[in-house]
Amino acid sequence: MSNYHIKHLEEYFQVYRKSVRDPESFWEEIAEEHFVWRKKWDKVLDWDFSKPEIKWFRNAKLNITENCLDRHLHTRGDKTAILFEPNDPKEEAQHITYRQLHEKVCRMANVLQDHGIKKGDRVCIYLPMIPELAVALLACARIGAIHSVVFAGFSSQALANRINDCDCKMVIASDGSYRGNKTLELKGIVDVALKECLGVESVLVVKRTGEKVEMQDGRDQWLQPLLDAASTECKAVEVDAEDPLFILYTSGSTGKPKGMVHTTGGYMVFVAYTFKNIFQYRENDVYWCTADIGWVTGHSYIVYGPLANGATSVMFEGVPSYPDYGRFWDVVEKHKVNQFYTAPTAIRALAKESLDYVEKHDLSSLKVLGSVGEPINEEAWHWYNTNVGKNKSPIVDTWWQTETGGIMISPIPYVTPTAPTYATLPFIGIQPALMDENENELKGNQVEGRLCIKFPWPGMARTIWGNHKRYGETYFSAYKNKYFTGDGALRDAVGYYRITGRVDDVIIVSGHNLGTAPIEDAINEHPAVAESAVVGFPHDVKGNALYGFVILKEVGESRVRENLKKEINQQITELIGPIAKLDKIQFVSGLPKTRSAKIMRRILRKIAGKDTSNLGDTSTLLNPEVIQEIMDNAL
Ligand code: WT7
């Protein structure tokens, strides 16, 4: 038996060594024992990072939905696959069993086929977090169509760009969506987008909010009547292990979004194996990832990873602040959630509110807490650990990227001792390398450099849709024969990794490398601070100096604010050193953020550098209105 479920640290090290010594036979064993294939591979791995070309499970044939659905029908037919928790707590939760999900997927797959969708066609999915979203992904996979999910918070322009980039033939959308006490329209956004997307032949519309929508004759149809009329059986289309399963766009450091292409066989093996171990999922556990399926976290750890393991995966339509700031904890209590996976930004937002919201709920079902998306600062880590985990549920700080498909560096809970701000150890099969400026690998411990991965893993993206050259340039050209992540990291004395942030954000001050993440950590430790962002700006003597944009928990009077500036710098001096002190501190009411809640540093850098003539594309920001305020008060 292969080591599908790691149970103690010694076993981790033993399996890790095996996975590195002989990756092919390691992954082959996992693939053979835990998945169903129509036909096995004739070679486990072909790779050449200089091309770059990566192929896992050559010539193997499968359908991922047979792994996520059909094979569970005998043993888990009546088990809940998707537990849907609606935006409004007064609306009843839906327990969709594996049998029901199989039926729903087959019906939708038949509808897609009836609309001319074939293997290899691209289908754009623009839906809120309702069950139809998960069903739509799986329905595409059932017939070998490639899904391209666009987060239903993107604007019509962003949607149009993505639809056109990969020539989608169909769009699956809804009339609208619920977000807390707001109702948002979606179909109208699709209509505007489609004025620019001449390749789209049909639009299938899910009714969710009852908004009035316009249906274009010959193009748009309500989905439900078509589903009702469709058969509950749909033969799964056989695909090659290397056929694309989906495209998912990620913003590049600049310019056009990159359509990362994930293929089928390796992705399935990787997300299923990481899910099982990193959440220590056991039969009958209830697992909840709060991400949106519009992001890779949702693809891999709400849909494919959990379902490939026959898990119960909670799908939450709402927001953490509605009807109040206790909603997450209310849902944990209501569904007795065992594994809870969220983002530091959500933790920080909730930590600002009264502890009563947490304390009035019974969170005793929790066994594992997860964090993803950005470095988790010490303060947030401790708040999460103490108040949610009650110091007994390990926090898995999972580092990965859209491009990696699944989790790369993370503790295994109850196996790897955790440490705040550390993603700890590479997952089984992952071979990280830290590189210095001269492209040399930094060996040994207590080193800091640029994070690369030096050997392929099954879940990695294979290309950028329509632009293989850019794929090579972005990820495989900075360091020879290595995948470059764009992140910086350090490896401490015991070999634990801490992600220090994007290296594009590293600022060199007086010849010293300073990561923005640790400085922001230090600022955020100040009790008056809610959030901050640090960027560099040109300085005569130091080369670069530091500019901090700081959101305070309470605005306060100006004298107090001047004092706070001193205190913040004291805090930085204490936690990092005087070299990291900020030259300028500007208090702001918000920070420009992308829809995935990442701070748009590019804009802050321009404002800090007094170079605001061309701020670039700000159309995909969550809160474009803060930019003017920040510019007006810039120092
Ligand atoms: C970037 C990838 C991974 C799915 C969601 C984000 C940062 C992600 C962590 C973490 C420190 C993290 C990195 C990475 N990041 N997780 N646990 N600790 N940084 O996917 O939008 O592709 O972003 O997010 O900088 O490169 P993404």
UniProtKB/TrEMBL annotation:
Q: Which Pfam families match?
A: ACAS_N, AMP-binding, AMP-binding_C
All copies of the Acetyl-coenzyme A synthetase N-terminal domain together span: 12-68
A Gene Ontology BP annotation from the UniProt entry? acetyl-CoA biosynthetic process from acetate
Q: Which residues form the AMP-binding enzyme C-terminal domain?
A: 519-598
Q: InterPro entries under this entry? A: Ac_CoA_lig, ACAS_N, AMP-bd_C, AMP-bd_C_sf, AMP-binding_CS, AMP-dep_synth/lig_dom, ANL_N_sf
AMP-dependent synthetase/ligase domain location: 70-463
Entry EC number(s) = 6.2.1.1
Question: What's the family?
Answer: Belongs to the ATP-dependent AMP-binding enzyme family.
The protein's name in its UniProt record:
Acetate--CoA ligase
| Species for this entry | Cerina litoralis
| Alphabetical UniProt keywords | Acetylation, ATP-binding, Ligase, Nucleotide-binding
Query: What's one GO MF term for it?
Result: ATP binding
Carries keyword Nucleotide-binding? yes
PANTHER family cross-referenced by the UniProt entry? ACETYL-COENZYME A SYNTHETASE, ACETYL-COENZYME A SYNTHETASE 1
